[in-house]
Amino acid sequence: MTTILPCGQADIPDIADLERRVIALPWGGRQLFAAFSDARYAFYKAVFCGDDPLGAKKAVFRGDDPLGAKKAVFRGDDPAGARKNALAGYILAEHVLDETNISSIAVEPALWGLGIGTALLGHVIGSERARGAVRILLEVEAQNAAALKLYQSAGFQNIAVRPDYYGRGRDGLIFEKTL
Ligand SMILES: CC(C)(COP(=O)(O)OP(=O)(O)OC[C@H]1O[C@@H](n2cnc3c(N)ncnc32)[C@H](O)[C@@H]1OP(=O)(O)O)[C@@H](O)C(=O)NCCC(=O)NCCS
Question: Does 43 reside within a domain?
């Protein structure tokens, strides 16, 4: 079973490692640590917990590269222990008065397509609505099909384009969701 929890400072190295592997413009550990001690930022993580390690295992051992998938999630010498609290994904939200900026979201590659991104984003939508935020903004690369689907399914709409934001021919798209 996957659950969403606030991150602790001890999670930052794992977050930095994940973002380095899957984010186009990663923040890096130093910037993540700085954000963690800044009250404007809220970090949440998805972890495997509870009594359903088999569910987690099934999710990991799929596709054509079980060994690669296994390595991606079950790091370290204690696969059983690691599995229980392994970082499956994270989301970083920035509070800007009554608006929220999604600074980053990522899920372990071996676990893509299982609803973890949707769960992380849904958690932030709920908590930001409860905080009194009126809209959520984010920026995504135009070619990032998975992220575009994630945001569109959650009710975000494209409101602006940043041409070549990620490099020549790689536009950034600004998405908005009103709460
Ligand atoms: C974007 C990302 C967080 C999505 O996480 P995820 O856990 O795989 O997302 P979900 O399983 O909740 O899927 C969300 C939607 O995207 C769809 N989707 C997932 N992977 C997809 C893909 N490769 N291509 C097209 N659609 C995809 C799912 O079918 C689902 O659609 P639905 O709501 O209609 O069912 C994940 O792919 C990731 O970490 N990517 C690398 C980091 C990144 O690009 N972050 C975003 C930067 S702006």
Answer: yes
Active site residue 139: yes
Residue 156 in domain: no
pTM of the model: 0.86
Q: Which residue from 5, 169, 171 is spatially nearest to 87, judged by alpha carbons?
A: 5
Nearest to 145 by CA among 155, 134, 153, 136: 153
Give the pLDDT confidence score for residue 44 in this predicted structure. Answer: 96
Identify the residue whose C-alpha is closest to ligand 1 atom 23.
Answer: 146
19-42 as b/e: b if 16+ CB within 10 A = beeeeeebbeeeebbebbeeeebb
Ligand 1 site-directed mutation target among 23, 102, 149, most atoms within 8 Å of CB: 149
Q: How many distinct structural domains can be found in the chain?
A: 1
Q: How far apart are CA 26 and CA 132, in angstroms?
A: 29
94 as an active site residue: the answer is no
Pocket of ligand 1 (CB under 6 A): 22-23, 105-107, 112-118, 140, 144-147, 149-150, 153
Do the domain assignments include residue 116? Answer: yes
Q: Give nearest CA residue, ligand 1 atom 48.
A: 140
The domain of 59 spans 2-134
Residues of the chain with pLDDT under 70: 1, 49-85
